[in-house]
């Protein structure tokens, strides 16, 4: 079976190398104005948070959404209760820096740059693009990189969502002072998603961390189970963009307990 994650990381090295030639790191740093920790400010003030992902394609499943553009999805999410938006900048997901800046121009919601970060350049670039947060995937970083990148993001006024897939990843994340832990429910070998992964890891995380469940949330019942178990929020892409009614699905995931009680 192909190691899709390894393939993406190898390609990412080439992309970052080309980006550095096109716009040197010193210039990126000059253009990166300090942020204000928009994601953590928003999430701390809410009982439950939906980070809605503008996702057009998956490397495992191909094209997921043809009905809407990234900016159209962003508008629907914002109008229907999303707490924050996740915008891909990796080409494997049909993402781009240009899409990110377009979304930044149209919304005041906190924006997470969704990418495979392997170099400090990408973190500085994220802030230059207007990101409020970056994704740090524990699986593809050394413990030293994970800690250094976390502090770099904080130094730029951005939050960092540290993504884990299993107990080994979780131990690496908990060895850092990371505030946000994202539990990815996707098995990286089979690419099957199951929210039971979050439910299993959640008790091992302990107090003082904000836990976001990623992938595999298919309906308000899944969201309600995660909320009842103690999750602080969810990050959903495929479950939203493939829904027959994206707006209604956004509302149901943004307030899962309410919609479950109302039977919506």
Spatial strand order of the main sheet: 1-4-5-6-7-8-9-10
CATH architecture: Alpha-Beta Barrel
- Kindly report the average pLDDT value: 93
CATH-level-4 superfamily name: Aldolase class I
Q: What is the CATH first-level class name? A: Alpha Beta
Number of helices: 13
Q: Could you give a short account of the major beta sheet?
A: 8 strands, parallel, barrel
Sum up the overall morphology in one term. Answer: globular
Write down the secondary-structure element order: HHHEEEHEHEHEHEHEHEHEHHH
Find the CATH topology.
TIM Barrel
Tell me the strand percentage band.
15-25%
Distance between the termini: 40 Å
Protein topology:
Blueprint: H1 4-22, H2 25-31, H3 38-44, E1 49-54, E2 57-58, E3 62-63, H4 70-79, E4 84-88, H5 97-106, E5 111-114, H6 120-129, E6 133-137, H7 143-155, E7 159-164, H8 167-174, E8 180-184, H9 196-205, E9 210-214, H10 220-229, E10 233-236, H11 238-241, H12 246-254, H13 256-262
Parallel strand pairs: 1-4, 1-10, 4-5, 5-6, 6-7, 7-8, 8-9, 9-10
Antiparallel strand pairs: 2-3
Keywords:
single chain; alpha/beta; 8-stranded parallel beta barrel; 10 strands; 17% strand; globular
Notes on the protein architecture:
The chain is globular. Helix 2 (25-31) runs parallel beside helix 6 and helix 10 packs across helix 13 (256-262). It has one domain (4-13, 38-262): TIM Barrel. The relative contact order is 0.15. Strand 2 and strand 3 form a beta hairpin. The chain is built from 13 helices and 10 strands. 47% of the residues lie in helices and 17% in strands. Strands 1-4-5-6-7-8-9-10 form an 8-stranded parallel beta barrel, surrounded by 9 helices. It has 264 residues and is of the alpha/beta class.
């Amino acid at each position: 079976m192909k190691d899709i994650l390894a393939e993406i990381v190898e390609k990412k090295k080439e992309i970052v190398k080309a980006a550095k030639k096109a716009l040197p790191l010193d210039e990126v740093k000059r253009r990166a104005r300090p942020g204000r920790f928009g994601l953590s400010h928003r999430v701390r003030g809410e009982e439950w948070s939906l980070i809605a992902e503008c996702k057009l394609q998956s490397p495992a499943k191909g094209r997921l959404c043809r009905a809407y553009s990234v900016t159209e999805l962003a508008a629907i999410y914002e109008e229907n209760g999303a707490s924050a938006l996740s915008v891909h900048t990796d080409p494997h997901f049909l993402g781009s820096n240009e899409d990110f800046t377009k979304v930044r121009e149209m919304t005041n919601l906190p924006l997470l740059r969704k990418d495979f970060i392997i170099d400090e350049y990408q973190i500085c670039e994220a802030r230059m693009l207007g990101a409020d947060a970056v994704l740090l995937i524990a699986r593809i970083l050394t413990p030293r990189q994970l800690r250094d990148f976390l502090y770099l993001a904080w130094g730029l006024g951005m939050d960092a969502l540290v993504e884990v897939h299993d107990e080994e990843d979780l131990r690496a994340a908990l060895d850092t002072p990371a505030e946000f832990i994202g539990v990815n429910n996707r098995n990286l070998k089979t690419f099957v998603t199951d929210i039971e992964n979050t439910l299993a890891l959640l008790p091992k995380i302990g107090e003082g961390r904000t836990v976001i469940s990623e992938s595999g949330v298919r309906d308000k019942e899944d969201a309600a189970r995660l909320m009842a178990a103690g999750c602080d929020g969810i990050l959903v892409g495929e479950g939203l963009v493939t829904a027959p009614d994206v707006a209604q699905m956004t509302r149901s995931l943004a307030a899962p307990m309410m919609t479950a009680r109302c039977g919506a």
